[in-house]
Design brief:
4 helices; seven-stranded antiparallel sheet; globular; alpha+beta; 7 strands
Length: 153
C-alpha cells in the first residue's frame, strides 16, 4: 500500500509512536518507538525500538512479524494506525542519530505540556536501538471523532 504524502509527513514528525505485537500464544505486547520512522519505499516504514527497554516486542517481531504501529499527535490526538509485517535489522549510526534526535524533540515537546521529564525517560530512550521495517498492509485513521477506525485509501 502506498502511504499518502500527508500521512507520511505526519508520522515522521514529533508524534508518539506505539508498537503493538503478539507472541506465539497471541498475547499482546506494546512498546514505545524511538523514532527513525522514515519512509524507505512507498509502502514501507522503519521504526526504531529500544531493544533493552522492549525485549518482548523485539522477540515477538523475530518470532512472527505481526505489527501495528500507532502514531499520535500528543496535542491534538490526531492519530493513524498502520498495520503490516515487520522485520528486524541492526541499527546503523544514522538510525541511532535519528533516534537520539527524535527522543530529544519529543521529550522537549512533552515537557512543554507539563509532563515530568523523569516520567518520560522511563519509557522513551534511544539506547540499544534495533530497527523494524514495516511493510504496510493497511492504514486506519484513529483520531477521536466520526472517522475513527476508517480505513485510509
Amino acid at each position: 500500500m502506498i502511504i499518502p504524502a500527508a500521512i507520511a509527513s505526519f508520522i515522521q514528525g514529533p508524534v508518539l509512536t506505539t508498537l503493538g505485537t503478539r507472541d506465539a500464544r497471541n498475547r499482546p505486547m506494546i512498546a514505545r518507538g524511538s523514532g527513525g520512522h522514515g519512509l524507505v519505499a512507498p509502502g514501507r516504514l522503519e521504526i526504531a525500538i529500544s531493544g533493552c527497554l522492549w525485549p518482548e516486542t523485539v522477540a515477538n517481531l523475530r518470532d512472527n512479524g505481526a505489527l501495528s504501529v500507532t502514531f499520535v499527535d500528543p496535542e491534538s490526538y490526531r492519530a493513524f494506525q498502520v498495520k503490516g509485517r515487520g522485520a528486524l535489522r541492526d541499527a546503523d549510526a544514522d538510525d541511532c542519530a535519528r533516534a537520539v534526535a527524535y527522543v530529544a524533540q519529543l521529550r522537549q515537546r512533552l515537557v512543554g505540556f507539563g509532563i515530568e521529564g523523569s516520567a518520560i525517560d522511563f519509557w522513551l530512550t534511544a539506547r540499544d536501538i534495533v530497527m523494524t521495517t514495516l511493510d504496510v498492509d493497511r492504514i486506519f485513521e484513529q483520531a477521536p471523532g466520526s472517522r475513527a477506525g476508517t480505513v485510509v485509501t
